[in-house]
Write a structure and sequence with these properties.
- The protein is an all-alpha fold.
- It folds into 2 domains: 119 residues, no CATH class; 165 residues, Farnesyl Diphosphate Synthase (Orthogonal Bundle), CATH 1.10.600.10.
- Helices cover 67% and strands 0% of the residues.
- It has 13 helices and no strands.
- Helix 3 crosses helix 5, helix 4 runs antiparallel to helix 6 and helix 8 runs parallel beside helix 12.
- The chain is globular, with a radius of gyration of 19 Å.
- It starts with 23 loop residues before the first helix and ends in a 10-residue tail after the last helix.
Length: 314
Amino acid sequence: MRAPEPVAQAQTRTWPRLVTVGDPAAMAASDAICKRLHARHGTTYYWATRALPRADQPHVHALYGLCRYADELVDAPGLGSPQERAERLDALHHRFTLDLAAGASEHPVLMAVVRTVRHLGLDGELFDRFFDAMRMDLSVTRYETFDDLHAYMDGSAAVIGEMMLAVLRPTDPDAVRAGARTLGIAFQLTNFLRDVDEDLDRGRIYLPQEDLARFGADPWQRQADAAWRALSAFQIARIRGLYHEADLAIAELPPRSANVIRAARILYSGILERIEGQDHDVFAGRARVPTATKLWVVGRELVRGGTPRTARPA
């Protein structure tokens, strides 16, 4: 199968704000698919999203739906060789680009995504970077340095923070863009530490090799020995530093947006606390913040906002 022509040839950098009017029933079905993907695979951010104004929620679900759908093409079992997966990913990117230019899509996931991108006026370059990162997952299984990993996260996490600015509506987007990128990276680093065990099943390690070597930690042993606990504590300190950097940007968001993102930040930080609570043994079970805690944190932040606090233990 021949890969599609490079999408850059067809892509305009910034799409005008245009709401595509299509079949309302089909659009509702597409929104429902994206919402299910978000609820099933991104529960922490999903519950924070529920605190946004109702009109904004479908846009967040759509952006997450695209990310998860592309991720499934890369990672889901039974989808063939890396080459076959790359071709499917390229085909999705190509179709997304053409549908975006046309202002409409008949794809069950892309229909809602195209509507959202056009409505929010998002820059198509953000999606180029996202798809580039997804392609890296088909060929890169190790990152030698944190800078190398950071380059990957530019497309897999930082761009998500940039996309969200159009939903959060800060007064000065440029003033908080760096903070939004940092928060997206902190979220993903939290996931990387929590999900070490399942990433090993895919043959990948999203922890810098230089850090593993520094502490003498070997994730392939799947044991929380002294070396692993020291590495995990180092990673948690690094991630918390990024959360503190992002707090300055959160404080500059409009009040409701700030409360929503603050709730997500608190809940993701709660994952780090859970990892510490199980003595850094991410191999024994997935560190989770209970749904009841998520609801409590989101409700609390909507009512009073303020300085980030830790999540209350279940």
